[in-house]
Amino acid sequence: MTRLSHFLGFAALAAVTSAQAAELPAEIKQAGTVKLTVNATYAPMEYRDPATNELVGLDIDLANELAKRLGVKIVWSETPFAELIPSLQTKRADFIISGISDRASRRETADFVDYLGTGPQFFVMADNAAKDAIDLCGKKVGTTRSTSFPVEIEKWSKQNCEPAGKPAIQYVPGENSIDVRNQLKQGRIDAAVQGSETLPYAQTQEPGKYRVVGEPFAKGYQGIMFRKDDLALREVVTEKLTAMIADGSYKAVLDKWGLGANAVAQPMLNAAPQ
């Protein structure tokens, strides 16, 4: 599917919904609630505020605004990252907005409405000798096992380390971003990879501890994930998100969390290249 087809698909959707606004599925409308589950370990996208234990973050703010416009309340739950997709498939969640990347391999059973630019980025402890990403060839690099980042690290290593006659990066798995950062602080890995949207926040929380190495080495999108047979729900959420982008409330949420540069011009369907 080409990028043009993504935009044409949403243009067609806009044409249909301009005559008759999309509506919530009857069961959600009747219940007055949507069930959402998150992995609250991925600040600033979703996490527990240490001071209040409240669930906060960019995704939380976006979801709350979407729910308000849909006229429903959110029933939140939490789950490990690896359980997000099963939660959607088993209908424990109505849709997923939890720092999850749109990937071709995930589109077999789900559709993504992409709403945020992202990309994997290397980082190290501030006193690490690495100056450029190429300095990480042959080093132990950790990232969350259930993300797209292990594949992206392997791809980058094959494209950069091996042609330069350097040893491949040694990938080390972690359970989540907190685990990976702990491994880095404990010296069990030499470097780590997280989404570019999370690193500025991590650096503000632990000033002077981490240093980013190079630019994001792949481009992708985070998406709101829907079951493929939930077309009506996907359409109505897309309609509300499009309105939020148009009236500036979407950008206000991103700016609040320091991620205005990651904004998209409009929602995109299954648009990530990988």
Characterise the protein shown here.
- The chain is α/β, with parallel strands linked by helices and 274 residues long.
- The protein has helices spanning 3-19, 26-31, 58-70, 84-89, 149-160, 177-185, 199-205, 231-247, 249-256; strands at 33-38, 41-42, 46-48, 55-56, 73-78, 110-118, 120-125, 140-144, 170-174, 191-195, 210-213, 220-227, 268-269.
- The strands form four sheets. The protein has a five-stranded mixed β-sheet with strand order 9-8-10-7-11, with helices on both faces. The chain has a three-stranded antiparallel β-sheet with strand order 2-3-4, with helices on one face.
- The N and C termini lie close together (12 Å).
Describe how the helices and strands are arranged.
Layout lengths: L2 H17 L6 H6 L1 E6 L2 E2 L3 E3 L6 E2 L1 H13 L2 E6 L5 H6 L20 E9 L1 E6 L14 E5 L4 H12 L9 E5 L2 H9 L5 E5 L3 H7 L4 E4 L6 E8 L3 H17 L1 H8 L11 E2 L5
Parallel strand pairs: 1-5, 8-9, 8-10
Antiparallel strand pairs: 2-3, 3-4, 6-12, 6-13, 7-10, 7-11
